[in-house]
Amino acid sequence: MTHFPNDLEDLEAEEIAWILQIFIESYVKFGRNYEEFNRYHFLLKSNLKTEKIVEYIINNNIKNLSAEDFENITKDGSLLMSYGSTFLEYGIEHGAIDFLNLALQIFKKRGDYFEKNTHDYAKALTDEGAARRELANLGIDSIENLRGAIKLYQKAREEGFVKNTHNYAKTLMYEGIARSDLADNEILSCKIWC
Prior knowledge:
Helices cover 72% and strands 0% of the residues. By secondary structure, it is mainly alpha-helical.
């Protein structure tokens, strides 16, 4: 069993940020049915920076959260992208548009935290592409989101992923899927409007 402090005043900012990540990840997977829910909830609710995030997540009010809410907790780019990845996974698994939009906002912050031509920068581009592709699959600005995803996958190869690597190959595959989906959407759009 993990040892928890009685309040967040004794913790460093990064420790609070990690506790928030553990809480979010556990909550989206198990809801209130995980062992330490009450303890995490109490701790995070007692902090002005985390209180809003926790309550909005619990009350399924994700659309009122923004990337800036998470930047107020931490300036650690890897941790911010971890929040984004958690929201992306949940959004894909449950078709949750608000989670996908929040993930998209967070991934767009990549330039504030990672230098171009790095693996982390390219990974954030790829994750943003995944969020856009999933939003398109849910019927949200499908053509625009698919075109955006294609550009992001290309940019990830140009600005971070090394040729002949697994990640480089994945972006080629994802781009191919997005192009196929885009063709289907444009054909459907043409049948309706042409």
